[in-house]
Amino acid sequence: MRTGNLLIAGGVALVVIGVMVRLGWFGWFGRLPGDIRSEGDNVSVFFPITSMIVVSVVATVLLNVFGRFFRS
Length: 72
What we know:
The protein has about 70 residues and is mainly α. It has one domain. The chain is about 60% helix and about 10% strand. The protein contains 2 helices and 2 strands, in the order H-E-E-H. Strands 1-2 form a two-stranded antiparallel sheet. About 0% of the residues are buried.
């Protein structure tokens, strides 16, 4: 039963994030200071270092909150 609830919560979270992306709420993502972008004549390189740190911190906080909520 807990696994089912976790899957439902994850699905709802993905739908909410998808709607937010579709509406353009994450236009800043990938343009943070520390994100490395290099464009040449025939090549383009992008390293979203700061953006991935933000994603990592948010994911860690959310997983800890959900882990405490669903723990028996």
